[in-house]
Write a structure and sequence with these properties.
The protein has about 80 residues and is α+β, with helices and mostly antiparallel strands. The chain has one helix at about 1-15; strands at about 25-35, 40-50. The mean pLDDT is about 75.
């Protein structure tokens, strides 16, 4: 009985697996400009296929380090 259930599970997995479409990034292009005034301009063009997902989104976390001008110290 276990062999039959396992066989059916494998059969249906192989049959239905191609029908499930996952999320996929089709293309990605980024233009990044660092300006003399220390600002950054970023333009991204993303072609994203969300598949059958009803809820989706792309989240960004931009990490930056701010450096301050160090004052000269006299010792």
């Amino acid at each position: 009985m276990k062999k039959i259930l396992f066989g059916l599970l494998i059969f249906f997995s192989l049959f239905f697996a191609p029908l499930v479409k996952a999320e996929e990034i089709k293309s990605f292009d980024a233009q990044i400009n660092i300006n003399k005034d220390e600002t950054i301009d970023v333009i991204e063009k993303i072609v994203y296929d969300f598949g059958l997902e009803k809820r989706h989104g792309i989240f960004r976390t931009v990490t930056f380090i701010k450096k301050t001008k160090m004052e000269k110290s006299i010792y």
